[in-house]
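Comment thread on ticket #2218

A.B. wrote:
> Attaching the input chain for the structure job we discussed in standup.
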Amino acid sequence: MSQGSSSQEQGEPLESTSNTKGERDMTKAQANTAGESISRRVADELHERIDQAAEKGEQFENTLHKGGAQAQQRTKEMTSSFNQLARDNPWALVGGSLALGILIGALVGRR
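C.D. wrote:
> Ran it. Output below, let me know if you need it in another format.
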């Protein structure tokens, strides 16, 4: 090797302005701050989406409760109507049941 070799070849550390300990610490701090900023934005977005999903879930639940209440009311009305029909015309109910029984028997007998 030549006598004019660099200080790095002689085993001495090369001091560059971008690799000083203070600058590395500053770069790490900036990276940590940037990472925390990204983490905070992601967390905030996730919280917002969770809140939206919870709100939609509550709306869906309310819709189901209203639909269930309406179905229950219709069932009560139909039951009341059927009971009134059975009281007013019992022989029509007997004849309809007999016809339905014959139809089901014929369908099952064909198999």
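A.B. wrote:
> Thanks. Noting for the ticket: The chain is about 80% helix and 0% strand.
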